[in-house]
Amino acid sequence: MPSAQLPRAVFAMDPVHLPLLFPAPLLARLRRTAEIDPALVVRDFADPAAASALAGADVLITGWGCPHLDTEALTALPRLRSVLHAAGSVRSLIGEALWERGVTVSSAVTGNAVPVAEYTLAMILLAGKGAFVQRERYRRTHAQPTPAEMSVIGNLGRRIGVIGASRVGRKLLELLRPYDLEVILHDPYVDVSEAAALGARLVSLEDLLRHSDIVSLHAPDIPETHHMLDRSRLALIHDGGVLINTSRGALVDHVALTDELVSGRLHAVLDVTDPEPLPADSPLYRLPNAFLTPHIAGSLGNELERLGLIVVEELERLADDLPLAHEVHRADLARVA
Length: 337
Prior knowledge:
This protein is of the alpha/beta class. Helix content is 35%, strand content 14%. The protein has 14 helices and 13 strands. It has a 7-stranded parallel β-sheet, sandwiched between helices. The two termini are 30 Å apart.
């Protein structure tokens, strides 16, 4: 796009997210870069009230709640050249017709990876200290733990198994570096040297499960990873091991995991489940060795501004005829979240 003429942009998302994604200073910066009406937030590409703006749009700024960009939607967007997604995955948003037209796509997934990795790091350190188990014991007994109970607590040299060198996985590996932990990694797309550069030792999935004290899932939800942690693989985790899932619930066979947790053999920190939320009668809500949170690891509250900033910076690149820094390529969607 020529830098002398500002691109025309339109918001397409659930409007509830807009003020947090683009607070006033960031919105002002965006409006210096593109012609955009902040009062128009599209939820339906067939809405007559949005027809004129969509017909003239060069850029669509999307987020959670954006309708699917299929062939019918694209008929309302004849000039569309770029989609800038102020959220994570675009897999459920982008249809084949958009790729066929040659529209460029960018995602703020790298920004969304930050809070997920931070949450995971916090849970790893708390799990290593036995915080979840000891909190439940303390509430029940009102007594200090015994020396025997304290002997299995601590993070010095604890082995952390990271499944998936995704954006979140890589950010987590970076955050783990300052700690006295041993980190092992499984990812079929990473070789030994790249794993070492990331600060981890590459191992098979089975070896990771056998030898990790804490296992953290960061693989994409694709057909090949559905129930990748099934009953037989969960059984490889040693007694007292911890599973952390901040990725997708479908990566784990939840019937098998529930059985392991009910038995007391394993512990779990689950920010995602399958289904989500779990049924009201699920024992995981009540088990002392299951720590559940309602899908809060990703960007929430003031963390959404980080995603908006990425979009504004991408828009500035477009206005200056520069390549996108966070472009999503069609070929990558088969193996990313």
